[in-house]
Amino acid sequence: MFDLGSLLHPSSGLAIPTILVIAIVLGMLHGLTPDEHTWPITFSYSVGSYSSRGGMKAGFMFSSGFTIQRTILAALGFAGLATVYETYNLDGYVYVLVGVGMLLAGYYLLKGTDIHVPLDRLLGAKEHHTTSAERVPMHESEAGTKPVPLKLATVHGFIAGWGLGAYASIIVFVLAPQMPNIILAALVGTSFGVGTMFMQIILGSVFANVMRIKKLSVNQIKYVGRSAAARTLYLGGLAFAIIGALIVAFPFLDSIAISTGNSIPNLDSVGVATVLVLFTVGVIGLGNLYLGYKEIVNTPSAK
Which range of residues forms the domain containing residue 237? Predict the structure, then answer.
C-alpha cells in the first residue's frame, strides 16, 4: 500500500508494475483536485451536456486528448527531450492557447443566439436576438440551445496537457526515466491519463447534474446548461488568454503563491492556477448557472 509521501516522492529502482500503479493513482489525484488544466474545461463542456451520460462523455472526451498528450510527454521525458520545461516556463503560452480555444468555442456557441454576455461587442458580435425568442420563452427557442461540440473538448485536453504541474513533473522526470524502453515510458503517461480520465468522468457527471437539484424541466435544464457552458467558455477563455499573456510578459507572476500547509499538489498553495480555477468554475461557471436559473424562473410561462 502506498502512502502519500511515497506517491509524491517515489524512489528510484521501482518495479514496472509499481510505477504504473503509482502513475494511475497520481492521475486520479490530478483529476480530483482543482487543477487549471482540467476543471475549467471539463466543467464548461459538462454543464452544456445537462445529463449524467453527457457529462461523463465530456469528461471522457477531454481526458482522451489529455491522455494522448501525456503519453507523448512521458516518452519525451524518457528521451531527455522534456528538459525544455526546466529551462523555460511554458505555462503562460499554454494558458493563452487554451484560452483562445475556449473563447472561440464560446463565441461559436453564442453567435446568432439570444444569449447575452458582457464584452461580446469586443469580438464584433451583433446584438444577440432572434425572432423565435420574441414568440416563445428562451428555454424553448432553438436559438438558445445550440449543442456543445464535445469533440472540441478532446482538442482542449491535448493542448492543456502541455502545461507542466507537480504531478506531471513526477511522471516525466522521475517515473518515465526508470522504464527500460521508450514504449513502457510512454505507458506511464497513458496510465496517468487513464487515472485522470476516471476522475474527470465522475466530475463531469457531477457538473452536468448541478441544475437538477432545482427540479427544472429537461428543456429548462438544457437551456441553462448550454447557455452557462457558452458563457463559461467565452469569458473563461478570455480570462485564460489574458492571464497567460501576462505570465508570458512577466514570468514572476506564475511563481506568486500563498502556502496552505497541505502537501497535496493543487491544494498546497493558492496562486495563479488556483485563481483561474476559482474564477472560471466558481465565479463565471456557477455564476452563470445561477443567472440562467433566475432567467428561467422569471419567465412568465416557466412559473
Answer: 13-302
